[in-house]
Amino acid sequence: MTAISTIKTYFDAFNTGDTNTMLACLDDNVAHHVNEGQVRTGKDAFRSFCAHMSRCYRETLNDMVIFEAENGTRAAAEFVVNGTYLETDEGLPEAKGQTYRLPAGSFFSLEDGKITRVVTYYNLADWMRQVG
User: Fold this and answer.
1) What is the CATH number of domain 3-131?
2) What confidence category does residue 37 fall into, taking pLDDT thresholds of 50, 70 and 90?
3) Phi first, then psi: what are they for 22, rounded to 5°?
4) Are 65 and 28 in contact (CB under 8 A)?
5) Which of 5, 13, 41, 119 could pair covalently with 22 via S-S, beta carbons 3.0-4.6 A apart?
6) How far apart are CA 60 and CA 57, in angstroms?
7) Model-level pTM?
8) What is the model's pLDDT at position 40?
9) What one-character-per-residue DSSP string does 14-31 give?
10) Quick check: 1 pLDDT over 80?
């Protein structure tokens, strides 16, 4: 599997809420760098993060462009997040079903066809403005 196909599989699974397929794309010791958060290490931490996100947010990604570099060991994706804020997330504004649309990007490291690092960025101030 190429880096691009691995990343495409990962994001296709995200869009359908298929956490198990997302996890299958990851190395057991994946480093997950959350936007403005701490690094979470391992599939269990990633699974927990996905469960939390699914409870608080419903999101799909579109306008996806995936890039590959360094012989498939690095990849990046640019996309738009279309979401609904479902349940109040700690330290954030109250959820009332607000919708939002944000440009975002993710960066990946890959080894032996598995994602070893995921870093995602979006503009939190823009999100706060949209749901506030």
Assistant:
1) 3.10.450.50
2) confident
3) -60, -45
4) no
5) 13
6) 10
7) 0.94
8) 95
9) HHHT-HHHHHHTEEEEEE
10) no
Kindly report the number of other CB atoms within 10 A of residue 62's CB atom: 10
Q: How many CB atoms lie within 10 A of CB 121?
A: 14
Q: What is the CA radius of gyration of the chain?
A: 14
3-state secondary structure of 98: coil
Q: Which of these, 58, 41, 50, 45, lies nearest to 19 by C-alpha position?
A: 50
Name the token pair of 27: 């190395």
Alpha helices in the chain (DSSP H): 3-16, 19-24, 43-56, 124-131
Q: 98-120, pLDDT tens digit by residue?
A: 999 999 999 999 999 999 999 99
Give 123's DSSP letter: -
